[in-house]
């Protein structure tokens, strides 16, 4: 049984990792860094020099920037300097309008933005913005998580220097409550439901994003296609088809740059969508109570946070693997599953989805989320029948937490070379 202190630490952890975001978190984090440096400078920069880690660059190249109708980093950088508000965190470009976009386009045409790949720092989440104007300069640096400033400087005055080098990530992890799947389950099922009700905000925001994706023609329109006569003719109107459609609708909207906030998880809006929408739709269609929904959403989101603790914020492994594993746990709970059955669903997920690469944030992420969510439902169904992948098969261990760490070690270390190949392909296409 968890102590009151442990429960409070976990609640604080969820509040830190489950936050609203407008647009893809990587370009928004870059815009945030630029906005902070601009604020320190005190004027619009004449020149912006950016050094970015490969994973930041990969996730910012092909995604729509909200409210602009444009794709990629330059417009996010320009708007960060022109209208960005750092106090808004990952909603830094909330004030974007048509006039701001026109100013941003003009700023880009003036050739003021210079982007390079960071070669020395090994942190997979690294953003350094150096802004200059009228003989003055300001520098801001984000590392480890999307809103974590580790260095701030105005001319010769260093205002903040918490850059611990490449050991910072492990130090950051040690400050968090260290989870196990059992702790996740106990917290979600034992804590007073009133203390967990805040998670319904994730339902509200991500449902609104799904509604936007269904109404408009965003991205590849995967969600709308599944709701069309063609989709209904093939998939029907089952719980399964509704889960897939709602999840992909929200992702369609977000990746295409819809100006709608979503509730992110561990620095990713897509992970927030994937950990939330399947659980929300399944609970509605399955006629679960509100309390069951709340506890299932906590199980789903906290499982994703737990897996990311050892995987890291960014990796070569697609985030839908993590988030859909969380949603499979939440769906298993909504089906009436106990801890043992939830453990089985995790093993089924790891046996199936491990190895799905992240090749950047882009409209086709909706396809990957839908693949992950379909596997989540299937894994939960098997788990409820006490059917699961055993330790005699592949990377699955008898201990569910060891199975999770096998997954994260592959994503964090084993796929490093894959990550480099993916970025090389993305940056050298004809």
Strands of the largest sheet, in order across it?
A: 5-2-6-7-8-9
Radius of gyration: 21 Å
The tally of helices reads: 18
Query: Based on helices, strands and strand pairing, what is the structural class?
Result: alpha+beta
Please indicate the percent range of residues in DSSP E strands (runs of 2 or more): 5-15%
Helices and strands, in order, run as HEHEHEEHHEEEEEHHHHHHEHHHHHHH
Q: Main sheet?
A: 6 strands, mixed
- Helical content, roughly? 55-70%
Arithmetic mean of pLDDT: 93
Shape: globular
Strand elements, count: 10
Distance between the amino and carboxyl termini:
58 Å
Low-confidence stretches: 167-173
Question: Can you offer a commentary on this structure?
Answer:
By secondary structure, this protein is of the alpha+beta class. Helix content is 56%, strand content 11%. It has 18 helices and 10 strands. The strands form 3 sheets. A 6-stranded mixed sheet has the order 5-2-6-7-8-9. β8 and β9 form a beta hairpin. α13 packs antiparallel against α14 (319-334) and α14 (319-334) runs parallel beside α16 (365-384). The longest helix has 22 residues, at 290-311. The radius of gyration is 21 Å and the shape is globular. Residues 167-173 have low confidence and may be disordered.
Provide a brief overview of the structure.
This protein is α+β, with helices and mostly antiparallel strands and 430 residues long. It has helices spanning 4-17, 25-41, 54-60, 73-82, 98-109, 168-175, 181-190, 200-215, 222-227, 229-235, 239-255, 269-286, 290-311, 319-334, 339-353, 365-384, 400-414, 416-427; strands at 20-22, 47-52, 64-65, 70-71, 113-117, 126-133, 136-143, 149-154, 157-161, 261-263. Residues 167-173 have low confidence and may be disordered.
């Amino acid at each position: 049984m968890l102590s009151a202190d442990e429960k409070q630490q976990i609640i604080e952890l969820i509040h830190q990792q489950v936050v609203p975001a407008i647009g893809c978190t990587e370009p928004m984090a870059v815009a945030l860094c630029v906005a902070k440096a601009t604020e320190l400078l005190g004027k619009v920069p004449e020149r912006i020099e950016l050094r970015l880690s490969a994973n930041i660059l990969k996730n910012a190249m092909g995604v729509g920037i909200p409210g602009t109708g444009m794709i990629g980093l330059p417009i996010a950088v320009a708007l960060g300097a022109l209208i960005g508000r750092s106090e808004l965190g990952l909603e830094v470009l909330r004030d974007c309008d048509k006039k701001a976009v026109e100013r941003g386009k003009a700023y880009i045409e003036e050739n003021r933005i210079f982007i390079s790949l960071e070669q020395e720092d090994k942190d997979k989440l690294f953003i350094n913005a150096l802004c200059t104007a009228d003989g003055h300069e300001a520098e801001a640096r984000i590392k480890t998580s999307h809103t974590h400033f580790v260095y701030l400087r105005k001319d010769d005055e260093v205002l903040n220097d918490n850059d611990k080098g490449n050991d910072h990530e492990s130090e950051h992890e040690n400050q968090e409550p260290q989870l196990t799947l059992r702790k996740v389950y106990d917290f979600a099922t034992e804590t007073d439901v009133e203390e967990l009700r805040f998670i319904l905000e994730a339902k509200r925001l991500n449902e609104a994003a799904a509604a936007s994706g269904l109404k408009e023609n965003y991205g590849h329109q995967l969600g709308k296609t599944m709701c069309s006569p063609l989709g209904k003719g093939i998939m029907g109107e089952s719980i399964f088809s509704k889960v897939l459609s709602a999840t992909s609708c929200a992702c369609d909207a977000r990746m295409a740059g819809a100006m709608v906030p979503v509730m992110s998880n561990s620095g990713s809006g897509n992970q927030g969508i994937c950990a939330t929408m399947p659980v929300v739709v399944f609970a509605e269609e399955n006629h679960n109570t509100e309390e069951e929904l709340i506890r299932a959403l906590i199980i789903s989101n906290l499982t994703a946070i737990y897996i990311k603790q050892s995987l890291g914020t960014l990796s070569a492994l697609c985030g839908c693997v993590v988030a859909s594993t969380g949603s499979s746990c939440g769906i298993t709970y909504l089906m009436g599953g106990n801890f043992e059955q939830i453990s089985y669903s995790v093993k089924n997920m790891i046996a199936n989805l491990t190895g799905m690469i992240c090749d950047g944030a882009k409209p086709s992420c909706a396809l990957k989320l839908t693949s992950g969510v379909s596997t989540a439902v299937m894994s939960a169904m098997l788990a409820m029948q006490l059917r699961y992948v055993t330790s005699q098969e592949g990377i699955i261990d008898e201990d569910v937490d060891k199975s999770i760490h096998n997954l994260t070690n592959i994503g964090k270390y084993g796929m490093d070379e894959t990550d480099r190949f993916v970025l090389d392909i993305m940056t050298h296409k004809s």
